[in-house]
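Sequence in, structure out.
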Amino acid sequence: MKICRFNEDRIGVVIDGEIADVTAILESLGSARYPFPNHDVFIANLSRLLPDLATLSRRAQRVPLSSAMLLSPVANPGKIVAAPVNYVDHLSEAINQNELNHGSRIHRIQTVGLFLKATSSLQGCSHGVFIEHADRRNDHEIELVAIIGKSGRNVPKERALEYVAGYCIGLDMTVRGSEDRSMRKSVDTFSVVGPWMVTADEIPNPGTLDLCLTVNGEERQRANTKDLILNTAELIEFATSYYSIAPGDLIFTGTPAGVGSVRTGDRIRAEIASIGAMEVAVHEKCNIV
């Protein structure tokens, strides 16, 4: 099932170029009070809600997908976990290009570990990305994103995919420079996810997915998730050996070679097999306080 958030925080099921508006499903979540949960309540209940979502979608009012404003499919991730240099070709690229490493030694993922992106950087594909530091290089990085469906700690890789609710496409946008990764990749709008989430039952093997990114129609990145150094299950095992995961947490699995700069006015198209494609516009700095 393809599940999206759209317009004013509505919930939809994507069917044949349309969105079945199933927002009424949220009534079954009940109410929350302070202190509020530090995870995504909808994702936490998703497995229970799937049969009702299917029933509702058959009779729900539909709106054209083309007219909808697509938001992040996850509203409230507790954390965004990301994997650096997790494709062999991108590792070589990062080691050999000074514009990427800025004179710093690049280590393998098993040595450097994972990093966290600020949840304030989360953005849906329809809103686009905003270039805050136009005087520096700002790069695109396409990634498969795993959406965690239940809580866990020290999860073995053999069971790790049981903890995944679904998958979506991610853009791990990056300001190049000497600062720590977490800072340069946490600019507002620099964690783009979408266009919807595809439930895990429709992607039983996330390790065989083709992915492609173009900028203004020019191909920049093309790879397959079989080329990941640590696959999705191994990343979950690695992450949970350090911290707990909870429903709605996002795991960016890494990007292949071909990362490159974007500028105001560019249009990014990111596509991953079995998920779909999303179009993301690049905008100038947002001055709204």
